[in-house]
Structures are given as C-alpha cells and as structure tokens.
Design brief:
The complex is a heterodimer. By secondary structure, chain A is mostly helical. Chain A is built from 24 helices and 7 strands. In chain A, the strands form 2 sheets. In chain A, strands 2-1-3-4 form a 4-stranded parallel beta sheet. The two termini of chain A are about 40 Å apart. By secondary structure, chain B is mainly alpha-helical. In chain B, strands 1-2 form a two-stranded antiparallel ribbon. In chain B, α1 crosses α9 and α9 runs antiparallel to α11. In chain B, about 35% of the residues are buried. The chains are: A mainly alpha, B mainly alpha. The interface between A and B is large, with 118 and 107 residues.
C-alpha cells in the first residue's frame, strides 16, 4: 500500500478550472497506488460460477483478456442497449452542457477530467459511436468516437470503479442522465469479461453462502448480540433479549450485518434493541437473512437479486406480517427501487401497520417494507416514546444525508425529525451539501478498500469539508447518518480531514435518549462516554 | 481544432447554395427537392429514434428523487421533486421540459486553499432558456408562411414579439434573444475550461449552423430584403404538396437560409439534438417515486439461483443446534422456496 499524503498536501494538484493540454482520448490510464482497487481472487469467481481472468492485477502491463474479448464486449454492450432504455437513452441524448462537470465528489477531490460525469459516460459513449455507428466510424474524434482497445478496458476499470453510483450528477442534469445507471451497466460488462474487484466480490460470496457480507455464522451473530446486550445491561441495568429466528413474530427486522459487529454500527444496533424493548415490539431478527446490505448491487443486478431473495423467503418462513429495515444507504436503494420488481407481488405479507400507533404505511403497501426512520418518526409523532434529549447534550450533531436514501428514495424529513426530538443540539451543514445535493462519503458502492485510500480521501473531501465548516463554526462533534457504509468509512474520513468528529447512527442517539422503564440512572451514553454533568462520576 | 472545423464546415455549407442557386440557378433543387428530402429524413429519422428507444424496455422504476418522499401523512412531500402520482410526474416533466428546472439548480464549485465554495451559476440556464424558448416562438411565427389564413395566435405572437417597435421594420425581441442565447452558449463552450475540454466538433457545429440560420433570417427581414410574397408562394406550395418555383426571384439569402434549415432538419435525428424528444423518455424523471406502493414489472426479469433456507440450515445445522438457535424441519421439505417473477 502507498503512503497517504498529509491532508494539507493531498489537494495540491487539484485544479478545478485547468484542464490538461492533451485530448482526453490521448491520456492513457495509469494505475497509481492508492487510486485503484485490486482484482478479484479467481477462487471467489469459481465458487460463484462466474468468469474470471485467473491471477492478475490491474497494474500488470498486459491484461490476460480472453482471445475473443472484443466480440464479448460488443455483445455485452448491445445486449444492454436493447434491454435497458435508461442506458440507451443516456448514451444518445447527452449534449455535453457540462452542468454535471463539477458535481462529482471524485472530480472535486482529484481534478481529473475523466471524473467529470459527462466524460465518465463518454468513455463508453465514444466506443458505442466508434463501434456501432457509421457516422462515428467515419468522423472519428470529431464526433467523439473512438475504437475499442485494451487501454479502453483499463480506463473503464479505473473510472467505473471511481464512481460510487451516488446520483448527484443526475440531480443537476437537464435530462436526468444518471451516471449510476451507466456505471452499473459498465461494471456488468467488465464482469462478463471476468474483471471484478476483490473487495466487492468476497462479500458477495460470504453473503451468498453464509448469509452476510463478513461471513458471520449463526452462532457468532448470536454471541455478538449477547455481547452487545451485556453492554446494554451495564449501561442501563436492564436485561433485554433479542428474538432470533422466532416464528410467528409480527415483524422481521433486517439491518446491515455491520450493525452486529462493527464499531460504530453496534451502537446503532443497541439503539434499535432499546427502542424495540421500550415499545414492546413483537419482532425477530434472522441469522439466515442476516444481511440488509447488498454487495451484489456493486457488481451486477443479477447478483443483487441473488443476495436479497433470502429476505423474502425468511419473511415467508417465519410467517411475519411485514418487514422493518434498519439504517442503510444502498440497501434502501435496492429495497425501495428494485425489490418490488424482483420479488413482487409480496402477497404473503400484510400491509405494514404500526402495532403501537395504528398508522398504516400506505407508501409501502405493496412491498411491505418500512424504513426504521419512518417507523420511529411515527412513534415520536404519536408521543409513544419517553425521551430525554438532554442525554445527548454532550453532542453537537449534524446530519449527513446518504446518497441512496436521498436521491433514490427521498427520505429527508424523517431522520431530521427524529434527531431534533432526541437531541438538543442539531445544526445543518451548508445547504448545497445536504439533502438532494448531499455528497457521497467517497467510499460507497464497494470502493471502501484500504488500497483505495487516497481516492477515498479525495472523494470524501467535499463531505468532510462541509463537516469541517460546522465543526469549526458550531463545535459539531457528531456526524449522524443512516447508512452502514457511512458508519464504516466516515470515521476514517473524519480522522483524516476533521479530527474530533465522531460518526453515529440516528438510532444510537435514540437509544441514548430513551427513558426505559426500570432502568438505572444512566451515567454514560451507549459508548461509555460520560453524559453532560456526569463527567466526574465515571 | 473542433471549433475551427465546425466553423469551416458551416461556411462550406453556406457556399453550397451560393453556388447552386446563385451561379447554377438550381431553384427547384434547393427550393423544392432538398427541403422535401430534409423533411423526410427529419420525420422518419425521428420516428425511428422514438421507436428505437421505445423498443428497449425500462427494467426498473428509478426516479431521481430531489425532494421529500411521500410517507407519513404529517410530513409534507415534495410533489414536484418526488412525484408520487402520474399527475405529479407530469408536473415535474412540464417544469423540466419547458423551464429546465434541473439546470436551474446549477452550482459552481471553487477550491480555495482547502475550502470548497459553491456559488450560483445560472448562466447556462439563462443561455439555454433564451435560446430554446426564442427558437420555439420563432418557429411559431413562421407558421404565417405555411398556413392560410394566418391563425390569430400567430399574429398575436408576432405582435407581442415586436411590441417595443425597435427599428423599421420592428425587430422581433426573440431574434435578439436567440442571438444572445446562442452567443452565451458558444462563449461558455469556448471560455469555460471544463466545457471546452469535453466538447466535440459535433457540439460546436449545431451552434454555428443555427447561428447561420438566425443571422440570414434577420438579414432577410431587415437589410437585404427578399420578396416576401414569393417566399409565401414557395412555402405554401411545399406544405400543400403543390410546389412550384416562384416566378419572381427571391434572393440568394433566402436560399442560404432554407438550405441551412434543411441541413439542420436532416442532421437532427442523428445527433445529440434528439435530446429534445429524448428528454420525455428519461426514466429518472418520468417515473413516480411510489416504488413500495405500486409494483413495477420488468418484462425480461428472470429467476436467479440463491441459497435457500433449507440449504443454509443444512450447512449450519450443527452450530445452530449448539447455540440453541431453533431448527426448522418443516420448511423446504417440498419446493417451498420463494417464487420469483
């Protein structure tokens, strides 16, 4: 791994308004340490029955492409143009107005013109023109067309794995061209050649065979939960149980598996557990459908479908009424925009209805899946929770809208409503960096590998910069979010750019504030940090 | 290089009717044959494009949500930015297509030391809206050449468009606006380093071509006047499929204008200009954000193999028993796994 430059040096080469003198088609892809991800271990692909290129790495001069790779690529492109209108249309109608150019976090953090969404799409648009269009072949570069070469494949690998499918460019595009769609298609095409990321594929194998991305076996999940429950007992004095694989429960609760084992997701999990206990919810978690996150989505839509099918079979098997989903970003993109198409009609479940408030979640009446923030906001609005927001007084909180829940779902008010009710100190980041204009963490869509650290810190810079602003101005020390990848990667980003800011899930804050029946007086929050006014006692 | 190429190409195109009509006197070819041919290419080309897009199914409902979803009744949802019903989608599309709402959001980012600063950047929107709306109004004004009697609304548009009576004959405001809009768009492409870097020749060419059309049009009206009666005679003949070359000469400027329009029409379906029609098809804008409430069907969806509960339980039976996690002997005895679409 390469040495990461210091924060003050990292952006020295970034010039947002200076472009190279060379035409972009003449700039060869370069594999610099810290700026690309490693190729997949062939065994992973073998196990899943997928094509691979054997043992190789992207920085190898010669890639072991199959002899008929050109034909394969042409076929793969054609198939997708015929089967996906979005892809086809987005290839046809871009006018290169450049509105998207400086909207990408990777461009803002690297200044690399191929990270402008329009040029990212040109990387494939130029090939479609050069390979399939007579005019394109005739006019060549004048019409933005070029030939398919090995360097093009390298370039695709580099830049379609420098896009986190965050959709920010799509907000600003006058035709709604969504680079995420292009990236999804391009990663699939690379997959057909056998080109994939190790970091994005190992979790797929675990999720497929074991049930969750880190490969936690059922007994380990149980042990982990028991460990967290003993922490809860220490902090609140309460002995709580978490139902596991309980048949006939009313609700199946599915959350990203990182919440079972990884700091700081575990505190969010403790928050869920406290909430469910507080309201006496009849629920269960599952060790079979133990992953809400979906690493398949970062590789191909088929893999995404493969992994999430478990959620529905488990709901059916356990005979629950409906499904409640935890805090996660891309998981919710898949649940919200893809599930119903893949797994519907979900007629073996009931239209979700809150057992406490009687609220019927009409917006989820077909899919039967409710977001935990919708559920909790409804509880708070009906006064069903006893809350002491002063238990979060040691925190000054800001909220990071995750890309997927923002631009592929539109859940903006629910988490804010919850935070404002459980915290006394909440401030917003500058308006051009939140809600639908929010910035990616810089490590989403399967790019949160250590070997990619430099690009992650560059891509995360716009987000971090907005946090730095409120950190300095209002003393913000907590970055709340509703995404497991955020919880996994933002701590690293904060440590690098804005030391002194911790990352927390929204339901961790809920857990802090809940006044539980029969609990002892709390001295600390769920992380054993002293509450305000109790500093001396811990 | 890209700019020069497009400029030279436009100049060459202007020379064609100058030679063809001015020297060779091919009135019928440039006045009747080429316009018909161009219109045919435009018409069938566009139909082909639309058919081609429609032929590819949209597999998923993927609206880009730029505002609050509809969820709990007491949370105000953004009807325009996160439409739930088709009516709201139509509203969103209207604002997108006629007012370029997404473009209006445009920001500019600057890196100052270690600080990213975002500023308003409406110039692109201003240039685009000036150009497109003026173009639309000018097209409507041109109906007077094709429809007899001239419809009232065309007269009305012309009257409003010439309201300030600048010059004799009065210059239409849209003539100035479209020039301004095109200039802004062109300058932006030339001056903004990023846009300049990503522009192809095919991005400059339509700008020059339309500039040529606009300038010849304005010149015909104001300085080098052409015989308007003969223009009407020719135009009316064309639309009634009874074309004839007018007896009076019209003037070369008109033929340049007509030729450039023909080139634009023929070029339209095979270039990025199809965005005008394509925008209506955009799945991130023309679909409602009601995914969990109304199922969307993908015509080519297929079942995929996944690890069923029974397979999974067999794999972990021992550790589950040891950990006291319930074993389900019933489930999956028969083929009970998830039925997939």
């Amino acid at each position: 791994m390469s040495k990461l430059p210091k924060p003050d040096e990292l952006l020295g080469d970034v010039k947002l308004h200076d472009m190279p003198s060379k035409h972009w088609m003449d700039i060869k892809p370069e594999f610099q340490p810290g700026r690309y991800l490693y190729a997949v271990d062939p065994q992973v692909m073998e196990d899943l029955g997928l094509p691979h290129l054997g043992k190789w790495q992207p920085h190898n001069e010669k890639w072991p492409l199959p002899p008929d790779w050109k034909e394969k690529v042409r076929e793969a492109i054609k198939k997708r143009l015929e089967r996906n209108r979005a892809f086809k249309l987005f290839m046809d109608i871009c006018v290169r107005c450049g509105a998207c150019a400086d909207k990408c976090h990777y461009f803002l953090g690297s200044g690399d013109p191929k990270n402008m969404p329009v040029l990212r799409a040109e990387l494939i648009r130029s090939i479609i023109k050069g390979e399939f269009s007579t005019f394109g072949k005739l006019l060549g570069r004048l019409a933005g067309a070029r030939q398919l070469t090995e360097d093009v494949i390298k370039e695709w690998f580099l830049y379609f794995y420098q896009c986190t499918e965050c959709r920010r460019c799509s907000v600003f595009c006058p035709y709604g061209i969504d680079t995420a769609e292009v990236t999804i298609m391009m990663r699939e095409i690379l997959h057909e050649l056998g080109i994939a990321l190790d970091w994005a594929m190992k979790p797929v194998r675990f999720s497929h065979f074991v049930g969750n991305h880190i490969g936690l076996q059922p007994h380990t999940i149980k042990e982990n939960i028991e460990f967290l429950l003993s922490d809860i007992e220490q902090i609140t004095g309460l002995q709580i149980e978490v139902p596991i694989n309980k048949k006939g429960a009313e609700i199946l609760f599915v959350t990203p598996s990182a919440d079972f084992f990884a700091d700081p997701g575990i505190y969010t999990f403790m928050g869920y557990v406290l909430l469910f206990h507080h309201i006496g919810l009849d629920y269960t978690i599952s060790t079979y459908a133990s992953e809400g996150g979906n690493f398949g989505f970062f590789n191909s839509l088929e893999l995404a479908k493969k992994l999430h099918a478990k959620v529905y079979e488990e709901a059916k098997r356990l005979k629950v009424k409906w499904i409640l989903g935890g805090e996660c970003g891309h998981m919710w993109r898949v649940w919200h925009q893809y599930h119903n198409t893949w797994f519907g009609p979900v007629d073996y479940l009931e239209v979700p209805k809150s057992p406490l408030t009687g609220t019927v979640f009409e917006n989820a009446k077909e899919n039967k899946i409710v977001h935990i923030c919708e559920f909790t906001a409804d509880l708070i609005a009906h006064g069903k929770l006893k809350i002491d927001p002063s238990r979060n007084d040691h925190l000054v909180v800001t909220f990071h809208d995750s890309c997927n829940t923002s631009r592929a779902m539109g859940i903006f008010e629910e988490p804010r409503f919850i935070i404002k009710n459980v915290c006394n100190n909440f401030v917003e980041m500058p308006e051009n960096t939140i809600r639908e204009k929010t910035f990616c963490c810089g490590s989403g869509s399967g790019l949160n590998a250590d070997e990619f650290m430099e690009m992650r810190m560059r891509g995360g810079f716009p987000r971090a910069n907005a946090v730095e602003y409120v950190h300095k101005k209002y003393g913000v020390n907590t970055l709340a979010c509703i995404c497991a990848i955020d919880r996994a990667v933002l701590p690293t980003l904060m440590k690098y750019w804005v030391p002194g800011v911790e990352v927390s899930g929204v339901h961790e804050l809920v857990g802090n504030a809940l006044i539980m029946e029969g609990e002892k007086e709390r001295e600390t929050d769920l992380r054993y940090r002293p509450l305000k006014g109790k500093e001396g006692e811990v | 290089m890209n700019v020069i190429f497009s400029l030279i190409l436009t100049i060459l195109l202007i020379l064609i009717p100058i030679i063809g009509v001015g020297v060779l006197q091919l009135y019928g070819f440039f006045g009747i044959f080429l316009p018909y041919l161009a219109f045919l290419i435009f018409f069938f080309g566009l139909i082909y494009r639309v058919f081609d897009w429609a032929r590819s199914p949209q597999p998923f409902k993927i609206p880009t949500t730029c505002g609050q979803q509809k969820s709990l009744p007491w949370i105000k949802h953004s009807r325009l930015e996160s439409p739930f019903t088709m009516k709201e989608v139509l509203l969103r599309m209207f604002f997108e297509v006629f007012l370029f709402r997404s473009l209006f959001r445009n920001l500019r980012a600057d890196l100052i030391g270690r600080r990213l600063v975002y500023g308003s950047a409406k110039w692109l929107w201003v240039g685009a809206i000036l150009f497109h709306l003026s173009f639309l109004i000018i097209m409507m004004r041109h109906l007077r050449f094709f429809v007899h009697p001239v419809p009232n609304f065309v007269d009305l548009i012309a009257k409003i468009d010439g309201f300030f009576q600048l010059g004799i004959p009065p210059i239409y405001h849209t003539d100035l606006f479209i020039l301004l809009g095109l200039t802004l768009l062109l300058l932006r492409r030339l001056i903004d380093a990023k846009v300049n870097y990503l522009s192809h020749a095919s991005d400059y060419f339509p700008l020059f071509l339309i500039l040529g059309i606009v300038i010849t049009g304005i010149l015909m009206r104001t300085i080098f006047k052409v015989d308007i009666q003969s223009v009407k005679e020719l135009a009316y003949g064309l639309v009634t499929f009874n074309p004839s070359v007018p007896t009076h000469k019209i003037g070369i400027l008109f033929y340049i204008h007509l030729f450039l329009v023909s080139v634009l029409a023929a070029y339209f379906p095979f270039s990025k200009l199809v965005h005008m029609v394509g925008v209506f098809f955009s799945p991130t804008r023309n679909l409602p954000n009601n995914n969990r409430a109304e199922r969307y069907v993908n015509p080519w969806d297929y079942p995929v193999k996944y690890t069923t509960y029974r397979q999974w339980q067999e794999r972990f039976r021992d550790v589950m028993e040891e950990a006291g996690i319930p074993i389900d002997e019933e489930w999956g005895k028969e083929a009970q796994e998830l039925k997939q679409a």
